[in-house]
């Protein structure tokens, strides 16, 4: 829904970082038997994949994953971030990867290398973190998958640009300064592009998407709690259509 990492090896390996986002790991493409290269849409860049919105999904029951993903895809939102905030998350990612071929499922709220490995094994096609550490950044790079590391300060952006990473998650967007903050970053850091997430609504999303350094936004407004509880997939599909129309 983001910080694209270059999949170049980390600085500790001695190789220079590549710019932009690449689905290749330092050792080359993932093997064909790997979940990262399973059949389905290719993912060269999260920002290129996701316009205008990445739904940010929290699932308590993995049985809801497939009908929810189908509703989002039918509504025009094919990139789906399932957050690792619940015990059901990995099973949900696995189910979407196996049963909804038109979806590109990613894993969010990644906090450590172990979660990166588990998400990749479950079939995640892109990875998102709310922040980053050197250890987590190394695991994201080594995964061979596109990823969005989270940032909320100019210093973090400069540090990641120095690592060759130009696509980033801006989180928590509203609390961290919103569109005004992103506007202030555009002139001194024009190479950085963002997927803002956190507190964004259908009403505020167009203000973010109008910024030159925003490629997409992440949000939950198309996934209201009462619709999820009622398994009202028709309503969620309608809300997804509204979100997808923001690209027009």
Give an overview in words.
This protein has helices at 46-49, 65-74, 89-99, 113-122, 134-142, 154-162, 178-186, 205-209, 225-230, 233-244; strands at residues 53-57, 79-83, 104-108, 126-128, 147-148, 150-151, 167-170, 193-196, 217-219. The relative contact order is 0.20. The longest helix is centred in the C-terminal third of the chain and has 12 residues, at 233-244. With 248 residues, it is an alpha/beta fold. It starts with 45 loop residues before the first helix and ends with a helix. Helix 2 packs parallel to helix 10. The strands form 2 sheets. Strands 5-4-3-2-1-9 form a 6-stranded parallel beta sheet. Strands 6-7-8 form a 3-stranded parallel beta sheet. It contains 10 helices and 9 strands.
Q: Using only CA atoms, what is the Rg?
A: 17 Å
Q: Sheet bearing the most strands, described? A: 6 strands, parallel
- Contiguous runs where pLDDT drops below 50 for at least 5 residues: 1-43
Q: Kindly, what is the distance between the CA atoms of the first and last residues, rounded to a whole number of angstroms?
A: 17 Å
Helix content: 25-40%
What's the helix count? Answer: 10
Shape call: globular
Classify the beta-strand content into a percent band. 5-15%
Largest sheet, spatial ordering of strands: 5-4-3-2-1-9
Structural class based on helices, strands and sheet pairing: alpha/beta
Assembly state of the chains shown: single chain
Mean pLDDT: 86
Order of helices and strands: HEHEHEHEHEEHEHEHEHH
Strands, total number = 9
Question: Care to give the gist of this entry?
Answer:
The chain is α/β, with parallel strands linked by helices. 34% of the residues lie in helices and 13% in strands. The strands form two sheets. The protein has a six-stranded parallel sheet. A three-stranded parallel sheet has the order 6-7-8.
């Amino acid at each position: 829904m983001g910080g694209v990492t270059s999949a170049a090896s980390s600085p500790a390996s001695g190789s220079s970082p590549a710019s932009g986002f690449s689905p290749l790991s330092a050792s080359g493409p993932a093997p064909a038997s790997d979940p990262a290269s399973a059949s389905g849409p290719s993912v060269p860049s999260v920002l290129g994949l996701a316009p205008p919105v990445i739904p940010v999904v929290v699932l308590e029951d993995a049985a809801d994953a497939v009908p929810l993903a189908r509703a989002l895809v039918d509504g025009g939102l094919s990139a789906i971030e399932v957050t690792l905030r619940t015990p059901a998350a990995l099973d949900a990612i696995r189910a979407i990867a196996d049963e909804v071929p038109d979806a590109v499922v990613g894993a969010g709220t990644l906090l450590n290398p172990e979660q990166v490995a588990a998400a990749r094994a479950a079939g995640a096609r892109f990875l998102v973190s709310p922040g980053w550490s050197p250890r987590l950044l190394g695991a994201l790079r080594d995964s061979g998958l596109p990823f969005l590391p989270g940032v909320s300060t100019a210093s973090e952006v400069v540090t990641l640009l120095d690592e060759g990473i130009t696509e980033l998650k801006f989180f928590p967007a509203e609390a961290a300064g919103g569109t005004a903050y992103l506007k202030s970053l555009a002139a001194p850091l024009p190479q950085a592009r963002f997927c803002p997430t956190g507190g964004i609504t259908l009403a505020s999303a167009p203000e973010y998407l109008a910024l030159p350094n925003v490629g997409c936004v992440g949000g939950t407004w198309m996934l209201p709690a009462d619709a999820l509880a009622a398994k009202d997939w028709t309503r969620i599909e309608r809300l997804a259509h509204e979100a997808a129309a923001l690209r027009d």
